Amino acid sequence: MSNTHADTVLYVRDTMLEQQAPPSSTVGPVGWAKDNLFSGWLNTALTVLSSLFIAYLLYRLIPWFVSPTWDGSSLSNCREILDGHEGACWGVIRDRWQQLLFGFYPPELYWRPILTLVLLLVALAPVLYTDYVTPKLLYFSAAFPFLMPWLLWGGTVWMPLMAAAGFAIGFAVFTLVSRLLNAGISISVAAAVAVLWWVLLAAPVANGIASVLPLALEPVASRDFGGFMLSITIGVTAIGCSLPIGIVLALGRRSDLPLVKILCVGFIEFIRGVPLITLLFVASVLLNIFLPPGTNFDIILRVMIMVTLFASAYMAEVIRGGLAALPKGQYEAADALGLDYWKAQRLIIMPQALKISIPGIVSTFIGVFKDTTLVSIIGLIDPLGLANGIRADTAWNGIYWELFIFIGAVFFIFCFSMSRYSMYLERKLQTGHR
Amino acid sequence: MTNTAVETPTPAAMKVSDEVAIQISQMNKWYGQFHVLRDINLTVNRGERIVIAGPSGSGKSTMIRCINRLEEHQAGKIVVDGTELTSDLKNIDKVRSEVGMCFQHFNLFPHLTILENCTLAPIWVRKTPKKEAVETAMHFLEKVKIPEQANKYPGQLSGGQQQRVAIARSLCMKPRIMLFDEPTSALDPEMIKEVLDTMIELAEEGMTMLCVTHEMGFARQVANRVIFMDQGQIVEQNEPEEFFNNPRSERTKLFLSQILGH
Ligand SMILES: Nc1ncnc2c1ncn2[C@@H]1O[C@H](COP(=O)(O)OP(=O)(O)OP(=O)(O)O)[C@@H](O)[C@H]1O
Ligand SMILES: [Mg+2]
Asked: For the ABC transporter domain, which residue ranges apply (chain B) (predicted)?
């Protein structure tokens, strides 16, 4: 059969071949190693060299990590325990882990930041895992931004409630006005009314109700905030706010309205052109000069605003990239079906643009979260600031690696989770097979 | 494909009424300095099926895209179903919800299922209750013969199926006029037929249609007028038989000889 071709051009197969397993040397772990590690002499040499290098590193590092100093009460005590051997002094972590996590937050109130973190995860669940979590939980997610500051800072419950009321008032104004005027004007009017409410009325009203019905948690001052609690508070706020603001800025930058476009471009380019540290200094020093004397504008709030604005500018550019990658046909199809600008953005354009931008968005998130360590420069005690403080203590003077390894590990857990989640999301949103 | 069913008698349903559906008068359009449409005059009656042909770059797409304001015209007048297209957004939305359009590259929404593609506009533009929108969508998906694909994503369908979904999606808005911009030119030959069959069926039901296409068999079978454009102008229009057998202008003759492969 195999040599029919030699005799004549006509060829007809008379028996079909059964499916066979691939040669065993090309599948399984052996096949994989052969393909990837030992496919040529150069490759083999590199494999051997790198294995030796890794082995050497582990040989030196593992004894350092596995060191019996958990109970050490000071650096000199650690040295006694180690008795001349090289090794880490983990006692510092045991001694100071609460401070690294909570800063100078009153220990009897530690339950509040812990509860906040748990509630944060609950609030995130319906957003992150739409397939598994009931959408009803989204109501809780919407309430969380008002719950979080109350739990962390304490004080009267009426303040966050009045802040929330501002949104309700703005929404009510929008629904009323939009019956008479177009969407753009209604949004502006609603925003103006809400801002007036927050600036002028919210505080007196909250205080008024509080004097009748005092429902309050023990207040905690911003200067007591510190450690990972501070990083997470600033990071989560900046991440949560920068996405919507970034979307608005990206749309504004692509807008046909010259004024909107100029404002957005100016903002984005200004923020991107200035280092974050400069913005933080502005927040810590300069704002005080411009604000009317006597106003008590919380330093953490100021920093949050600056970090959020900083992240928003980057976010806007990432999302603009996603928007630019969408084929023009998608806009045209949405137009041709009669969807107006906002509906087209919300239902057609944004879901696709955001999906394209997921890697960039998550990179920005991770960057922002890590940038929160910069606040130590203006005197807020983030984990790195605390590390310096701890090293100034005579007991722990001279310790470096242990603290930074601990801080690095905690940051890594957060950042790596974000990165894994983004991969999960990309896979989930994958439709079609092109 | 050039002589499919030349003898098919025009079905009774394919009547043309006297009511004017689209009126374009003295319409001009420029892209920057480039005069892309020049003095376009065209009246389309309800139930008419018009095929627009012409060489590449002659402005066919631009013209039909002006009808639902995907492109803006700078001079002249376009009235669709009694609504004049100006920069008034209300009018534009009104026209767009009455005029369906199918594109060369389908432009389905890849992040939505076929069913969601079809129900989106009825739910959000027409405010149809979801259940009713789904029923309508299934009805039209059955009509284009792919109800079983309803829960797949566009990326999982063949080109011909995608184009039929695009037609169904437009029909779900119950449009009074349908525009087609080369709906079959991105398709393989065997898929062209399934899309054309769908369009023929639509024509037989009396839909007002404007169709840019090079499918001359389709033109002969369903069109009551063929319009030939060149360099942004309408050069010739006639009934299909006359147009193909007895073209008047030199440009038309040249074009037909090229497209019919003589
Ligand atoms: N956005 C635009 N800006 C500038 N010129 C354009 C634009 N869109 C189209 N044109 C030009 O206008 C002319 C008409 O384009 P149009 O797409 O209407 O042609 P067409 O007849 O549909 O051609 P085809 O058969 O290739 O689709 C072409 O010369 C094209 O280069
Ligand atoms: Mg075209």
From this structure: 22-256
